[in-house]
Q: What sequence folds into this?
């Protein structure tokens, strides 16, 4: 067939196992398009990743990727009219705005006799197909994953990258650089030392993880200085690799607790997307509405100290500095810093949500929303509010020899292990010997853990009516 078709790239920036792109290539000559939609918010760190990911994709497409910014609906319709395109392909997104946008675009294109074909290229199980026996959505992870997902149809099998690409170009308004993705503040420059971006890098990272990180994953994943985490989350978010590719590559390994646990982590990603699909206000509204009455207390000085990694609690500060320096935080430490914000500083989870959204290279609407609500205690299947991570105990337990903390809080690097996570308990002699001067080279704790824990629990009892 010699028809001209348009494929609309979104968060599926890959060639292999891209079902929409694969089908488009079977249908005729393809115009590959990426639209930086002005209606969709993207954080600064994510823009940095997107810039390089688009360049990698463009290389794979032999410099045929057409990029443009504006309103997706009007841009796609104009392109179809101008270049006599009668079919448009894309992979579905399950975010609330994207769902509404897709419906509108399909209706508008249908009015102009332009057909559309959409595919699932981002989830193992489509959220509308997984329900309880009474037709209502699951609200607890384990039955969702074990019964709703694993006992339903198997995930879609992967497809190869299209062969013998037939692509066509149209005059470009501007290139990827002109999209203005790179922030004016060059704080992101340090990210270059921590990441390889693109489809090839994602595959290499998966295989490196299988070879050196999967064995021992279930237990060792909680230790931030170990290499038992995949760090695939930004690649997944931008679609440089699909969950199906990961699922079928991992599942080929001999089944054991590590394999099962890693696959269940993919299940948690599915659950977050599932919750956002069925409860589209998850990003804004407390899933458990009793938290609407929780007495949050925003304090700009405390919040600023948290964002800068200057709280006086070393494991918290290490995590927040890791975020600033790399665009990423180890998952265990994410829970520690989030718990500290909402339960020790009593600052609303919205503030943490927004900071992570701007600073994380793997910022994902579903994961960010569900995870912050989980830690805050307000979400579905959430950690109970009275589960408050003690940053001293967490540091001592999961950063046993302090490698992680010393890496990101180097001013404490000479402190003995038994004082590393509570430097305020060290004698003046030990502090002097370790070149630490509290209040100058490293801050005193900004809040008292015991006191703020008590306030948090009393506040929770108020909304419980106790």
A:
């Amino acid at each position: 067939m010699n028809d001209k078709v348009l494929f609309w790239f979104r968060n599926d920036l890959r060639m292999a196992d891209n079902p929409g792109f694969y089908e488009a290539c079977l249908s005729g000559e393809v115009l590959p398009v990426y639209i930086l939609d002005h209606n969709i918010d993207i954080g600064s760190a994510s823009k940095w990743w997107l810039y390089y990911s688009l360049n990698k994709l463009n290389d794979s497409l032999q410099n045929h990727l057409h990029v443009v910014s504006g309103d997706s609906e009007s841009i796609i319709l104009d392109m179809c009219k101008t270049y006599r395109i009668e079919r448009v392909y894309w992979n579905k997104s399950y975010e609330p705005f994207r769902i509404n946008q897709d419906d509108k675009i399909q209706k508008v294109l249908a009015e102009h006799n332009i057909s559309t074909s959409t595919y699932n290229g981002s989830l193992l199980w489509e959220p509308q197909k997984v329900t309880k026996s009474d037709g209502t959505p699951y609200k607890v992870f384990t039955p969702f994953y074990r019964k709703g997902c694993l006992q339903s149809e198997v995930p879609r099998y992967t497809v190869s990258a299209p062969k013998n690409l037939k692509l066509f170009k149209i005059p470009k308004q501007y290139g990827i650089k002109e999209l203005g993705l790179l922030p004016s503040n060059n704080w992101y420059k340090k990210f270059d030392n921590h990441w390889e971006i693109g489809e090839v890098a994602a595959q290499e990272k998966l295989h490196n993880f299988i070879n050196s990180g999967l064995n021992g994953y279930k237990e060792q994943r909680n230790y931030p200085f170990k290499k038992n985490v995949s760090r695939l989350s930004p690649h997944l978010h931008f679609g440089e690799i699909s969950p199906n590719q990961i699922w079928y590559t991992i599942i080929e390994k001999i089944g054991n607790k590590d394999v099962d646990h890693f696959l269940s982590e993919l299940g948690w990603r599915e659950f977050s997307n599932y919750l956002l699909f069925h409860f589209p206000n998850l990003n804004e509204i407390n899933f458990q509405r009793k938290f609407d009455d929780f007495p949050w207390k925003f304090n700009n000085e405390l919040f600023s100290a948290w964002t800068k990694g200057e709280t006086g609690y070393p494991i918290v500060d290490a995590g927040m500095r890791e975020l600033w320096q790399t665009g990423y935080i180890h998952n265990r430490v994410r829970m520690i810093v989030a718990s500290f914000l909402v339960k020790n500083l009593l600052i609303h989870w919205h503030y943490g949500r927004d900071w992570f959204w701007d600073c994380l290279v793997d910022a994902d609407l579903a994961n960010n929303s569900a995870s912050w609500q989980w830690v805050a205690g307000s979400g579905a299947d959430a950690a109970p509010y009275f589960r408050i991570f003690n940053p001293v105990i967490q540091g001592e337990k999961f950063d046993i020899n302090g490698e992680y903390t010393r890496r990101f809080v180097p001013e404490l690097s000479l402190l003995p292990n038994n004082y590393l996570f509570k430097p305020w308990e060290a004698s003046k002699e030990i502090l002097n010997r370790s070149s630490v001067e509290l209040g100058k080279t490293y801050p005193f704790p900004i809040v008292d853990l015991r006191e703020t824990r008590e306030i948090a629990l009393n506040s929770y009892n108020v909304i419980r009516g106790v």
About this structure: The chain has three domains: 4-121, 123-158+199-278, 289-464. DSSP finds 20 helices and five strands in the chain.
